[in-house]
């Protein structure tokens, strides 16, 4: 159809090409300066008509649209008036340039349908003065097209790009309807959508005959019109099937034969593959199952136990690994032979299948040894229920041969995850140890099973403590933290307590934490503490304590094991407490925290705004070595350095040293274990930043903390005790010694009153009952040495030596008196 469209376009272009040159030449011969044409103009038109016989007639219109000349009528004959529509079209053509195609019309004098070719004449100033129209009979074109070899129902013709049909073959019944209206069909849409295309396809409904057609078009040269050829869509499908059906028939027969061959080959291959798969599955099954009992064997156990352990960790459920065997199985073999023993083992396998749950797993290791896996246990009660049912089934006689049944005795050793937080091989080994314990006491035991216990009673204590946690006996107590510089309470430490529901006895962490030795239990403890903290803090915030920080103890194991970090982040994410107010205290003993496993976890938590404190600093040498690497925000001094100060006041030097390390690292420093006012007084004298202990407040429930906070009175500024005086003396002595050796000029220029205020505590020794004592004398001697220096006598080596002797004497006497009065200091 594309080639046919080009032929139609070429036939129209041939006619129009001669007119594109001839009409402008004819226009130059006409004298149309006035609206009254002459006979010479008529002769020029007639002469052009004779040389172009395919033109039906020529018409000349004036600038107003009035017909001036028409070669279809003699010169001077009155010419008919044209219709208003035609007059308007003439006026529009007068405004155009070059060759134009008008609407196909029926002539007023020459009554045939003709294609109108228009050419506008303009004055030298560009004003339109006349319009020359050449009428080409439509039959001239359609006659040429009819000679083409066309398929039935082919439609072809010319279309102006604005939607007017110029010529069409075949012509519909009403020519007036065909040429008198503007169409908006699929061809017009295709031509207008792609104005840059010289040719192209189109398809859709055609308004001329109302049918769905598919066709092609080609544009005319320099004329806004296209030639088109189309066929009804139904005709195209008919032709396609007419030509394709024989080919399809042959192809279909060939395809059926080919597919039959392929199907036969595929069937053979499939049967072979199924046979191989079945054989492979049979070999795999044999490799993973015991041939006697048809139960899974040791190979299957290795894979299944690892997966079961992973499921238990993911679902936070218990997994019991049991090692089971018969008591005195040798006696059965001796009495009934090995065949009888095999029958017993097969029957025992059936008993185990029937008595255990669908989620459990039974394995025969060999001989009379079996492994029993109890999965998806919510608590110990679930396990006890399963074991009691198994014990009842084993109490029933088992048919061993015709007419004879025997009752078998068995032993079972169990290791329970997460109470035994170990890997698969270790769980089996521990279950074996428990089995040994069960067999050893088979004559005195109450049950046929025994639990693996680290020290014989640990599992029972573990289970008891876990049940207390689940029963809601956990309570959170809070111990305040005092800022010794501002003398304000700036935070609290959350401390776990177990309170017996029946007796009200309070258990501190040292009493129950050893029983929670698995990461699972430790996580549950931390989660409960965090949730209670979140609830209590909301109450405090509403009472105006919205700046308090809360410290919560975190076992190092939760920073080293992947799943616990994710769970911890999830729990903290659920809290309403702002993350920057939460401090996680990590207790480290030597070797507890591998840096490579911990720092990433700590940084992940710190990225949420959470802070870290390293507890019991100084308790392990490794702690000090790692302090520079761990991303902590504060350190808490080990209580051992603080509690013994009354007996060992010289230990203040260690506190000063550790405080100096914290200052260099730019982290906060907190002293714990401040049990007495003397120790608190000493820490104030050393300018320790923060303190925590009984001297400030004992741990208390959250509902009591608010009342305590509003009535709390900060300690009196010291020193007020001998230990406080000793600590203050160390600080001031260092100050003066530094000035004497490094900046003596400052001492000489300072006033006596300002410097004496640094060392003299009026009446303190007298209030403490040491007036006139050797200590009092040494104290005054120390001051007298300073007075001589302040008296402008100058600083010499002798003066510095005298000062150092007086200072050392005072230090020794203070330490001695403090030790002798240790009981009073500790009060």
3D architecture notes:
By secondary structure, the chain is an alpha+beta fold. The protein folds into 4 domains: 229 residues, PAS domain (Beta-Lactamase); 155 residues, Alpha-Beta Plaits; 245 residues, EAL domain (TIM Barrel); 104 residues. It has 29 helices and 28 strands. Helix 21 runs parallel beside helix 23. About 1% of the residues have low confidence. It comes from Acidihalobacter yilgarnensis. It holds the Pfam family GGDEF. InterPro entries: Cyclic-di-GMP_PDE-like (IPR050706), EAL_dom (IPR001633), EAL_sf (IPR035919), GGDEF_dom (IPR000160), Nucleotide_cyclase (IPR029787), Rev_trsase/Diguanyl_cyclase (IPR043128).
